Amino acid sequence: MEKIKLAFDNSYARELPGCYVHWQPQPVPEPSLLFFGEELARELGLDPAAVDEATLASTFSGNQLPEGATPIAQAYAGHQFGNFSPQLGDGRALLIGELVDRHGRRRDLAFKGSGPTPFARRGDGKAALGPMLREVLIGEAMHALGIPTTRALAVVATGEPVFRDRYLPGAVLTRVAASHLRVGTFEYFAARGDHEQLRRLADYAIARHYPELADADERHLGLLRAVTRRQAALVAQWMGVGFIHGVMNTDNTSIAGETIDYGPCAFMEAYEPATAFSSIDRFNRYAYENQPRMVHWNLARLAEALLPLLADDQQRAVDLAGEAINAFPDEYRRCWLASMRAKLGLNAGTAEQEGSDVVLVEEWLSLLQRQRVDFTLAWRRLADAAEGQVQRLRALFAEPQALDDWLAKWQSRCAAQAGASLPASPAAAQAARAQAMRGVNPWIIARNHRVEEALAAASDDGDLAPFERLLAALAQPYREDPALAAFAEPAPAAFTAAYRTFCGT
User: Average pLDDT of the chain?
Assistant: First the structure.
């Protein structure tokens, strides 16, 4: 069987010895290709039509690596639910190599579930099919929503079971990321007092993700500030669609600003800020409402790790780090308000309008919370209301009078904006606002009951049809198609009340 040829340029392995161990994936007995992202493959320079399915299955199971692959297990540490683990690392993952895609972006190609590594900590290094398909569904949903994310290139069934609470079919995921550099990667070397390796790692991160900082006088401080800005923007986007990561440890916080590691993740349905689904998050540390605060906390751990690089004087380093990290709340609030304004169909507004716009958003969210209204559909039906079609929105509320009172305030703000922009006609202004709102307020998200149905069918019955139908629906979240209406419906209340997600390890 001829090997796949990919234009690897493995800079991490080449430039950062000591940050990884060379390792090989464990062969699997019966590789079978279950999912392959053809559009992403073409982006990476791989023509799906030029490779047969058996070769794809063999390659993306790890049985036969592409030419130029340099498989390594990366070293990193991490704060997990607030507790520091000085050595975690790729226990069941391997970075196969890096590609420069057709757009000139450097991308990691990595396996998950390819067998134990020296970082496995007595784990089997394997992955079950269900969690790997979840990575596909949620990652592709986030990509379609326009949220920075890692993506799945392939899922291959291994032909052997893995044991969790029961025996489950095994699988290997191939993941594509801007990089797998994490806050925990920096913590690993800081905890060991290896400042020279820490400096090399920071300079590598700058060259790869923030090249505009390469010649800056305080480039490492610039790195901290840049990561802080990206994470603020990312989490604001999560909050805008009701996404709950569920395991936001520092080893799952990307330096590149991508969403990474879709384990016990889920989407909120009825708006409740305290919503948390993760079975391993026993104290709801990573509940929906806590996510901005927890990312801020994670960034503080990055700041601590970078202290030796910020200044020779320790107090000066602490002051600089504190200044950078303390900018997060305002930066997040700015990103959050921009997102909320867009969802409300409002422009940036004046400085004088900022306070009143925040109040308008908070009153809307409070209204959703009090009446247990579905978060996604409420925003979507608000776009209908922008065109005067209020009944579909009112139908979501048990007590619509309170909605009517808020709508009057919102419509007044919209009218003030329309008056300032001098539209061709009021009807044209309404139509333009509704169209803009439908471009940022999805109709379809990865509803939890639909995800679980798809994963159960694939894992228990070997039936991929529900997975494939859901994946297709998630690809166009902003377009209403009556044929896909079932994917836009909230889960039954009884399902959501008892719903718990699991890490999948």
Answer: 95
